[in-house]
């Protein structure tokens, strides 16, 4: 069985859709094909059930020729269902000519099932997309499975030593936690935990490298929404600065420091980390 996902939007939105597509693949024993922005291909390669990523410039105002090419690509395989996260007249025209029997979306004349977002944290809200297929979603149970080679490469990049590894993952926004506090924090922690190892993950790191670095850490401190969600998917303890209650699952190992990131003191962050 094959399922098509039309997935426009940001990298964070792609990441929020991973548990839903993984649940479809597992429960239907299906292969998934995903149409997304070309720059987001690396993310979908982390999901083993994705057999093909179709690069498509949703955000670039695609012309009729590009829509016709996409129609040809989605008509060729035998898709039994489509989860459509896109909107607009052109995507609906394309899907209405696709011959895919089940087409799920939040709106649109091509949809065979129109759904509304469920309650819960953001990935869990996509459970409504699965219900017309007779499927269920427990987004909190989803875990990323990374290649052993990527994990080994991440471990080789880590500082030497036997102590716990704290991964610092700042955002690149102007209102991020001040740089001098990021730099001061490891020194303050080592006053109480001299064997601490510390690694900094830049927002510009390739996506697969970011995922592996997170998976190999003992605890992650991050102000980046993407890295925070990656950490939740890896099951690693997390302190999330500037996050909101609906962005992450409720777990004992996840501590959220909401609100203004710049206003957080070093003492508040250390307390959240358990110091």
* Helix count from the secondary structure assignment: 10
The shape, in one word, is elongated
- The CATH first-level class of the largest domain comes to Alpha Beta
Low-confidence stretches: none
The largest β sheet comes out as:
6 strands, parallel
Number of β-strand runs: 11
Strand order of the largest sheet: 3-2-1-4-5-6
Q: How would you describe this structure to a colleague?
A:
With 275 residues, the protein is an alpha/beta fold. It has two domains: 2-141, Glycogen Phosphorylase B (Rossmann fold, 3-Layer(aba) Sandwich); 148-272, Glycogen Phosphorylase B (Rossmann fold, 3-Layer(aba) Sandwich). Helix content is 34%, strand content 18%. It has helices at 11-28, 41-44, 64-75, 89-96, 127-130, 148-157, 179-190, 207-215, 225-234, 266-272; strands at residues 2-6, 31-36, 50-55, 79-84, 102-105, 113-114, 165-169, 197-200, 219-222, 238-241, 254-257. The chain has a six-stranded parallel beta sheet, with helices on both faces. A five-stranded parallel beta sheet has the order 8-7-9-10-11, covered by helices on one side. Strand 4 (79-84), helix 4 (89-96) and strand 5 form a beta-alpha-beta unit. Helix 3 packs parallel to helix 4 (89-96), helix 6 crosses helix 8 (207-215) and helix 8 packs across helix 9. The longest helix is centred in the first third of the chain and has 18 residues, at 11-28. The radius of gyration is 20 Å and the shape is elongated. The mean pLDDT is 95.
Descriptors for this entry?
5-stranded parallel sheet, Rossmann fold, 275 residues, alpha/beta, elongated, 10 helices, 34% helix
């Amino acid at each position: 069985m094959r399922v098509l996902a039309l997935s426009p939007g940001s990298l964070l939105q792609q990441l929020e859709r991973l548990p839903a597509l993984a649940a479809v693949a597992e429960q239907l024993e299906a292969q998934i094909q995903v149409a997304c922005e070309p720059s987001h291909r690396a993310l979908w390669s982390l999901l083993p059930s994705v057999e093909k990523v179709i690069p498509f410039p949703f955000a670039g105002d695609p012309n009729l020729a590009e829509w016709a090419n996409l129609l040809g690509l989605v008509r060729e395989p035998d898709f039994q269902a489509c989860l459509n996260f896109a909107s607009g007249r052109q995507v609906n025209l394309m899907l209405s000519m696709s011959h895919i029997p089940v087409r799920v979306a939040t709106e649109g004349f091509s949809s065979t099932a129109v759904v509304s977002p469920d309650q819960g944290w953001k990935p869990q809200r996509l459970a409504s997309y699965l219900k017309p297929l007779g499927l269920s979603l427990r987004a909190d149970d989803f875990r990323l499975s990374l290649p052993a080679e990527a994990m080994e490469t991440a471990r080789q990049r880590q500082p030497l030593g036997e102590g716990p590894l704290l991964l610092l993952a700042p955002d690149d926004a102007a209102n991020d936690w001040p740089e001098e506090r990021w730099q001061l924090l490891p020194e303050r922690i080592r006053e109480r935990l001299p064997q601490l190892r510390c690694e900094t993950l830049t927002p510009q790191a390739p996506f697969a490298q970011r995922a592996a670095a997170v998976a190999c850490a003992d605890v992650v401190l991050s102000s980046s929404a993407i890295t925070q969600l990656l950490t939740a998917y890896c099951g690693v303890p997390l302190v999330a600065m500037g996050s909101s209650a609906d962005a992450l699952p409720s777990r004992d190992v996840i501590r959220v420091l909401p609100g203004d990131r710049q206003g957080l003191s070093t003492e508040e962050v250390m307390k959240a980390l358990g110091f």
